């Protein structure tokens, strides 16, 4: 009985190793732009960015920012 279980397990493992991945990878990191404002306006100076993007990393470091020194002292909070 144990031998049948081992052979069946080996067959299942070998059969599953031959499958192609069903996961599809899509690159959506093209042509993203960012402008720090509350609305959308084409006259703004849009900055090209890559994802992931953190707008606050370009802000000034200050111990009084909402993030405090424990959060990098950045303006993002």
Question: What do these coordinates show?
Answer:
- About 20% of the residues lie in helices and about 10% in strands.
- With about 80 residues, the chain is of the alpha+beta class.
- It has a domain at about 45-75.
- The chain has a two-stranded antiparallel sheet with strand order 1-2.
- The longest helix is centred in the first third of the chain and has 15 residues, at about 1-15.
- The mean pLDDT is about 75.
Helix content: 10-25%
Radius of gyration: 26 Å
In which order are the strands of the major sheet placed? Answer: 1-2
> Per the principal axes of the C-alpha atoms, what is the gross shape?
elongated
Which percent range describes the beta-strand content? 5-15%
Q: What is the number of beta strands? A: 2
Roughly what is the average pLDDT, rounded to an integer? Answer: 77
Uncertain runs are none
N-to-C span: 62 Å
Counted by DSSP, the helix tally is: 1
Q: What's the main sheet like?
A: 2 strands, antiparallel
- The SS-based structural class is alpha+beta
Order of helices and strands: HEE
Compact description:
With 77 residues, this protein is of the alpha+beta class. The protein is built from 1 helix and 2 strands, in the order H-E-E.
């Amino acid at each position: 009985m144990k031998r049948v279980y081992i052979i069946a397990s080996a067959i299942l493992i070998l059969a599953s190793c031959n499958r192609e991945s069903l996961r599809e990878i899509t690159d959506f990191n093209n042509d993203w732009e960012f402008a720090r404002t509350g609305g959308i306006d084409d006259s703004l100076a849009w900055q090209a960015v890559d994802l992931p993007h953190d707008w606050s990393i370009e802000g000034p470091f200050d111990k009084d920012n909402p993030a405090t020194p424990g959060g990098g002292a950045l303006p993002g909070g």
